[in-house]
Amino acid sequence: MERKPLKEYEFWLLVGSQFLYGIETLEKVAQHAVIIAEGLNTAKQIPCNVVYKATMKTPEEIEKWIKEANYDDSCAGIITWMHTFSPSKMWINGLNLLQKPYCHLHTQFNRNIPDQGIDMDFMNLNQSAHGDREHGFIAARMRLGRKIVVGYWEDEDVQSELGKWMRSAIGAIESKNLKVVRFGDNMRNVAVTEGDKVGVQMQLGWQVNTWGVGDLIKEIDNVTESDVDEQVASYRKLYDFATDNLDSIRYQAKEEIAMRRFLDREGAMAFTNTFEDLQELKQLPGLASQNMMALGYGYGGEGDWKVSAMTALIKRMTEGMGGGTAFMEDYTYDLEKGKELSLGAHMLEVCPSLSADRARIEVHKLGIGGKEPPARLVFEGHSGNAVVASLVDMGGRLRLIVQDIEAVKPKYKMPNLPVARIMWRPEPDLISGAHMWILAGGAHHTVLSFDADATMLEDWCEIMGIEFVHIGKESTVAGMKQQLFLSDLAWKLR
């Protein structure tokens, strides 16, 4: 499925001023705004296009541009900045109408105060220090959700923070159009993979629908041998073949082609299946699902549509960053005292974007599901800082739980474990980290990402209006208990 490049998304820079200071000052405001927009567009941390639209001088002008932002599909959000003093009552009607993500950039055009050049003309032009405080008040008074970025616009940390928020905003915009195809239902009797699909569509926009496995089988029957030849050739370019069982690889190619055609026809970027509902499929999709994830599709095992959708969204939010994002599961622990690690894997379906080296295709008996041995990608994950994220339905509200982790080189070779795997140390440590994860109701399925971080995902939660729980280096069990208690109270009051 063709997806718009991130750079084609626009963030509109709406600059605040007023007529009080004269035409010459307004012309300089516009000139400075253009320079800032162009400067941000050349920064490597900025993934999208910053477009200066206008200097806001009246309530009518503000309302006009916010209405246009709402209805322009290329606009993913607005960035406001008050170059001069802009009386914030002017912004009320416009901000009341705003339906796009909103960032308040508190900066100023000049880095330093010009010792000899500062006079009252300079002061009238460069009033961000108090103009942005006026603007901040009205957003606070109106209880508006927004991102606040503070600092000099040319600084790398400011550009990085702004760029991450842009990615969160893209996730929010694309969330409203996300479709998930479920091939069959959930694994029987599992609680955490369930959820309120109607409520999720109302809040997040996800369209989650089910097709029978028989519908997928019909699509597989339409795949030609030449289609399979072409897909297998692409596998050879990407992966090492460590098996002589080409029949299994060819069947996985058939499954992938059929699933991609099915999803593309439906306009979907995420899918699920379960080994309990394979009907006449010869194999559980393994290599097929893994290669689709490498192409940007989201996947959830055992019918877990929430993790499937989150995988697709986080992949989209982090597009071009290169660290890797995948469907994941805490599978088993290594509990050496003081050096505890988690081994993450799944039966088959871990995205090769996490691989430390070139992945290899192997064929082994699955031991569950009662079908033919499926081809799958086997690899070790690379090391580095990452997060695992779990979206759960708490009944009446959604909660995203994010934990910081440090992925490490696996300490064992594990020659008899023919699956993709990655080992990590959870923050603050496995024992207290797992305690807090369980307290918060985190699922056994997660999205693991080396590119997204807690700030990016928190921004996404704030835009979407859902609860965010972060487990990091400074987190404690006692603090988590208090946070969850207060959060329950706060969300009930909402």
From TrEMBL:
Keyword rRNA-binding found: no
Report the pathway entry.
Carbohydrate degradation; L-arabinose degradation via L-ribulose; D-xylulose 5-phosphate from L-arabinose (bacterial route): step 1/3
User: Is Manganese set as a keyword in this record?
Assistant: yes
Q: Which GO terms describe its cellular component?
A: cytosol
Q: What is its EC number?
A: 5.3.1.4
In this chain the L-arabinose isomerase C-terminal domain maps to 324-467
Keywords (A to Z) from UniProt: Arabinose catabolism, Carbohydrate metabolism, Isomerase, Manganese, Metal-binding
Q: Which domain of life is it from?
A: Bacteria
Q: Which GO terms describe its biological process?
A: L-arabinose catabolic process to D-xylulose 5-phosphate
Q: Member of which family?
A: Belongs to the arabinose isomerase family.
Biological function: Catalyzes the conversion of L-arabinose to L-ribulose.
* Name of the protein: L-arabinose isomerase
Which organism does this record belong to? Sphaerochaeta pleomorpha (strain ATCC BAA-1885 / DSM 22778 / Grapes)
Q: What does the organism's lineage look like at the top? A: Bacteria, Pseudomonadati, Spirochaetota, Spirochaetia, Spirochaetales
